[in-house]
């Protein structure tokens, strides 16, 4: 499954060539219309028997308020069911469901949608995942290593992001984004004092005959980690394609670029809808 998905992504991407942005792990760009999206991701771990519907169902919405301001929110649902885990010379099954950490924030749209618009986001991930759902928390982190703030227990995250897009022509666009994240433990017994992460991303999108192909390079720098400097960066690459329609469906695959993260990737599906 892993090899087939990566091959299809490569073939589509480079046969179509890189505009209307469709993203997978980078931030949604602020629009003047209400947008709703549902993203499904699941870890592609060969050594685990993950059941068919296990994964992260991440719902998000952007709602224009007034002026150039949008209200943005997201909430992931974690459905975890793993069979035949080798544990103490035996095999066990594990599973459970939980809501992740709820994000609420504001997004500032560009003053005008020129060839290089800029969007700004400021928000907070509230610690809404229950403390007893440790297994689901770890499953979420394994599914979205770039987005640990969505799944960490007893943690509040202040999130900022700047997104910049460049329209090279009617069919091709490039973009970059980045910003700091302040992770604050909410449990008084925590051994952590807080962390400062810096996330970053680069992407390219191409539209061709009603379809699009996209590539993303995303990562996070753990600035407060005590690890060696080179081990503080976690980088990922994503390839995918989809259909440009009223309901934008897409399929993608993300794989890690760090040896410490192993060879386990993430398979994903996404639906985007703009409401007139």
Number of helices: 2
What is the fourth-level CATH superfamily?
monomeric porin ompg
Strand content: over 45%
What profile does the largest beta sheet have? 12 strands, antiparallel, barrel
From the alpha carbons, calculate the radius of gyration and give it in angstroms: 19 Å
Overall number of strands: 14
- Helical content (DSSP H or I, runs of 4+): under 10%
- Overall 3D shape: globular
Distance between the termini: 37 Å
CATH architecture: Beta Barrel
Describe this protein's structure.
The longest helix is centred in the first third of the chain and has 15 residues, at 2-16. The chain has helices spanning 2-16, 134-143, and strands at residues 34-44, 49-50, 55-66, 69-87, 90-99, 102-108, 118-126, 155-167, 172-185, 195-208, 211-222, 233-243, 247-256, 265-275. It has one domain: Beta Barrel (Porin), CATH 2.40.160. Helices cover 9% and strands 56% of the residues. It has a twelve-stranded antiparallel barrel. The protein has 276 residues and is mainly β. It starts with a helix and ends with a strand. A hairpin with a 2-residue loop joins strand 4 and strand 5.
């Amino acid at each position: 499954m892993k090899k087939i998905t990566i091959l299809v992504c490569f073939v589509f991407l480079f046969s179509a060539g890189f505009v209307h942005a469709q993203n997978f792990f980078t931030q949604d760009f602020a629009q003047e219309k209400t947008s709703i999206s549902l993203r499904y991701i699941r870890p592609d771990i060969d050594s685990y028997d993950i059941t068919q519907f296990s994964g992260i169902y991440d719902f998000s919405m952007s709602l224009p308020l007034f002026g150039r301001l949008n209200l943005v929110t997201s909430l992931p649902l974690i459905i975890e069911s793993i069979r035949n885990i080798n544990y103490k010379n035996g095999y066990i099954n594990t599973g459970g469901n939980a809501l992740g950490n709820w994000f609420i924030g504001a997004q500032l749209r560009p003053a005008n949608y020129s060839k290089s618009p800029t969007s700004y986001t400021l928000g907070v991930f509230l610690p809404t995942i229950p403390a007893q759902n440790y297994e689901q928390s770890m499953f979420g982190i394994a599914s979205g290593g770039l987005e640990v703030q969505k799944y960490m227990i007893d943690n509040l995250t202040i999130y900022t992001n700047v997104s910049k897009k460049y329209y090279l022509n009617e069919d091709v666009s490039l973009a970059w984004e980045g910003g700091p994240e302040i992770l604050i433990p909410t449990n008084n017994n925590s051994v952590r004092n807080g962390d400062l992460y810096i996330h970053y991303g680069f992407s390219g999108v191409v539209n061709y005959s009603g379809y699009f192909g996209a590539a993303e390079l995303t990562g996070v720098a753990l600035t407060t980690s005590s690890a060696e400097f080179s081990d503080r960066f976690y980088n990922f690459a994503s390839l995918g394609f989809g259909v440009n329609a009223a309901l934008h469906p897409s399929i993608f695959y993300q794989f890690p670029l760090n040896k410490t993260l192993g060879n386990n990737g993430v398979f994903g599906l996404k639906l985007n809808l703009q409401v007139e």
